[in-house]
Design a protein that fits this description.
Elements: H1 2-16, H2 19-26, H3 30-41, H4 47-53, H5 63-98, H6 119-133, E1 137-138, E2 144-146, H7 147-150, E3 170-171, E4 182-184, H8 189-198, E5 203-212, E6 223-233, H9 238-253, E7 259-264, E8 269-278, E9 300-309, H10 311-316, E10 325-332, H11 333-341, H12 354-357
Parallel strand pairs: 1-5
Antiparallel strand pairs: 2-4, 3-4, 5-6, 6-10, 7-8, 8-9, 9-10
Helix pairs in contact: 1-4, 1-5, 2-3, 2-5, 3-5, 6-11
The structure holds zinc ion (ZN).
């Protein structure tokens, strides 16, 4: 029995012979080469694997001898396989090098979608460009802000509803000054406060970016974008403000766009006003006004809030209100984008549906 095991191994190796060399040599690609290799050394069905399985029956004293023969055979198979694999790789690389070259600069056959800025950011950039052309400097401010810069210096009374937990995202920040309350800014006016607190007039600044409030319905989102501008100098009046906003309306909707001011109250301005711009989606002459949903048939669209900066705000920021005056205005960028493109719900702007975004 023991003699049989060794003899069976020797007979098995002799039967395998050189056949694998021919099989490997005629394999024309890596896949068929690996198939041929598996026929010899595959874990279950390999012909050599089966012979190697006979080693179990070889007595210990004859194992080194039988094992050496099996291993030598196995080494030969593996070396032959590696050699052929390397030859095939080299051949396929040569074929690639000599093949007709691809011209990678040719346009593709399928149209490739090219990205673009989100409609809110397109609108933001267009608005900033209008104000930049009017002489305003663009400044960025932080989105996580101290209560002082967001509310206190803007003369919000401590019990103003805007400061309520219901309306504002208060946050805890490691390393914040002691007793300082920190929040996600509720408007871009924090940038106005920061600039006024660190510079000397004259200054004309515009700032845009995300702001945060606890609002969520068809026209409100907890995060939206605002743009805000202000100017401080010795001789500034409501007439200057009106001129700038009229120029802005024309920059946005074209020459002759009408603007009207309605008195309103904001704690940080005195006097304050809301500004309407003539509806560009309808016309009384053309008879489209009676059915216009954008302006609800009024012919006016409410766009922004503005006013003369309250003397207390100037004082809080270290500016002498006896010498300097200023105006400020601010509005939501989403609202302008919705009016501009006729978008019915603010949610479309934040759902990131490519079918919607591809339309801009
Ligand atoms: Zn209208």
């Amino acid at each position: 029995m023991t003699e049989d095991a060794v003899a069976a191994i020797e007979r098995g190796l002799a039967e395998l012979g050189d056949a694998y060399r021919d099989a490997f040599a005629t394999a024309s690609n890596e896949i068929s080469l690996r198939d041929e290799y598996a026929k010899v050394l595959g874990k279950k069905q390999g012909s050599l694997t089966r012979v190697m399985g006979l080693m179990r029956d070889v007595p210990a004293d004859r194992r080194p001898e039988a094992g050496a023969k099996v291993n030598a055979f196995k080494d030969q198979v593996e070396r032959t396989f590696e050699q052929r694999l390397a030859d095939l790789h080299r051949a396929s690389r040569d074929a690639e090098l000599h093949a007709r070259p691809y011209d990678l600069t040719l346009p593709g056959r399928l149209p490739v979608g090219r990205g673009h800025l989100h409609p809110v950011l397109q609108t933001r950039d267009d608005l900033l460009t209008i104000f930049r052309d009017l002489g305003f400097e663009v400044v960025e401010g932080p989105e996580v802000e101290l209560e002082e810069n967001n509310f206190t210096k803007l003369a919000f009374p401590p019990d103003h509803p805007a400061t309520d937990m219901q309306d504002t995202f208060w946050v805890g920040v490691d390393g914040a000054p002691k007793d300082a309350r920190v929040l996600l800014r509720t408007h871009t006016s924090n940038t106005q406060v920061r600039v006024m607190s660190t510079r000397t007039p004259p200054m004309a600044v515009v700032s845009a970016g995300p702001v945060y409030r606890r609002d969520d319905d068809i026209t409100h989102s907890p995060m939206f974008h605002q743009i805000e501008g202000f100017l401080v100098d010795e001789q500034v009046s409501m007439a200057d403000l009106k001129g700038v906003l009229a120029a802005f309306a024309e920059g946005l909707y074209g020459p002759g766009t009408p603007v009207r001011f309605r008195p309103s109250y904001f704690p940080f301005v005195e006097p304050g006003a809301e500004v309407d711009i003539g509806c560009v989606f309808c016309s009384e002459a053309a008879g489209t006004r009676a059915t216009c949903r954008v302006c609800k048939t009024t012919g006016w669209v409410e766009v922004l809030g503005c006013g003369m900066i309250h003397p207390d705000v100037l004082r809080h920021c270290g500016i002498d209100p006896e010498r300097y005056r200023g105006y400020a205005f601010g509005f939501g960028i989403e609202r302008i984008a919705m009016l501009r493109y006729g978008i019915p719900s603010i949610k479309h702007l934040f759902e990131n549906d490519p079918r919607f975004l591809a339309q801009f």
